[in-house]
Design goal:
six-stranded mixed beta sheet; five-stranded antiparallel beta sheet; 10 helices
């Protein structure tokens, strides 16, 4: 009986799954709590051409200009000559090759599915109308430099420009702290954000660590250790409160201004955490990358911003594989799209909360 099953599967492999299109729902398998999908059935349903080498246990998928190479038992997959790491390896279940369902959704669907015109997503009317995008480093300050020479300032600017384009298409007014390879001081970056009276501040960076095996993406908000009362006193002495002339506190005392700024900073910190969580969640859903989560940090641009602010470390240039990923324009576009989706979610939730207060 086992010999018959093996011969049957071998015939399937030789015949090529692209020749038998199918509309049947894909069979899935649970292996140690992880959902997998049959590679053969996937190829049949998506009209993907493939070859399988039984000796090396490697599969080669192709459709159009896209190619994917994978190996049974390995988590490393080569997508259009770029390495991607799965959370779980390709496997064999009951004699058939299976791949993690999440990889099917995030990579195969994106590459091989037919593209249909997508309906334009319009963000709901909200008080979130203007966002500052800050591309870290620039000019004489290259930031971290990867082993293969990729400069942080270039990655940051490219992701920032892509994100800016996406947000403008959503109807958001975008202010860039820099739009070219120029050096902008931290003080100037903060001033640009505050002078623009933006609703959100997003700073884009790339990470580095002496431990070169460390990889992943993380999002920072202003550290809980940073005193809101100290920041409030500084703002009370140096910043302008945009109060309505009819307000009882149109000409507030220094103490009252400090109290009002303290309330603003406390609210902004809570909103920054919400924004960071939404961005992390979108990235985790859309990218096959390690998400290190959200963290508090006393970065200067976060301390100085007078609106909800986050700083995104898109990956580690000190990690060889992650540097290769970030060198790829398609991957940088995926990062920008994921950040935009996180912002979209935050804006929708913010709008609902504002409506509930009215």
């Amino acid at each position: 009986m086992n010999r018959i099953i093996i011969i049957f599967l071998f015939v399937l492999f030789l015949s090529g799954c692209a020749t038998v299109p199918s509309r049947v729902a894909l069979p899935t398998y649970n292996i140690s709590g992880v959902t997998y999908v049959s590679l053969v059935s996937l190829c049949e349903s998506e009209n993907i051409a493939w070859e399988y080498d039984t000796f090396t246990r490697t599969a080669h998928l192709s459709k159009g200009a896209h190619k994917i190479n994978l190996m049974v038992g390995e988590s490393l997959v080569i997508v259009d000559d770029m390495p991607q790491y799965l959370k779980y390896p390709v496997d064999i279940y009951q004699g058939t090759v299976v791949i993690p369902f999440k990889f099917k959704e995030q990579v195969l669907d994106g590459l091989f599915k037919e593209r249909y015109p997508q309906q334009k997503i319009t963000l709901p009317l909200s008080r979130i109308k203007k966002i500052v995008i800050d591309a870290g480093h620039g000019g004489k300050d290259p930031g971290t430099i990867g082993k293969r020479g990729l400069r942080e300032k270039d990655v940051n600017l490219d992701v920032a420009k892509r994100l800016s384009k996406l947000l403008r298409a959503d109807g958001i007014d975008v202010v860039m702290t820099r739009s070219g390879d120029s050096f902008i001081s931290l003080e100037r970056r903060v001033a640009i954000a505050n002078d623009s009276r933006a609703d959100l501040f997003i700073s884009i960076h790339s990470n580095a660590n002496r431990v070169r095996s460390l990889n992943g993406l993380e999002v920072y908000y202003i550290s809980p250790n940073v005193s809101d009362s100290k920041r409030a006193l500084y703002c009370a002495q140096n910043a302008v409160l945009n109060l309505d002339k009819s307000s009882f506190a149109y000409n507030p005392s220094l103490n009252l201004k400090a109290t009002l700024w303290d309330m603003i900073h406390t609210s902004n910190r809570a909103e920054s955490v919400r924004l960071a969580r939404d961005v992390c969640s979108a990235i985790d859903n859309n990218l096959n990358t390690r998400v290190l989560g959200i963290k508090g940090a006393p970065f200067y641009v976060l301390k100085g911003a007078r609106m909800p602010a986050i700083l995104i470390e898109t990956g580690f240039l000190s990690n060889y594989q992650e540097e290769r990923l970030m060198k790829n324009a398609y991957y940088r576009q995926q990062i920008a799209e994921s950040i935009e989706q996180g912002i979209q979610r935050y804006v929708r939730d913010f709008t609902l909360m504002e409506a509930a207060k009215e």
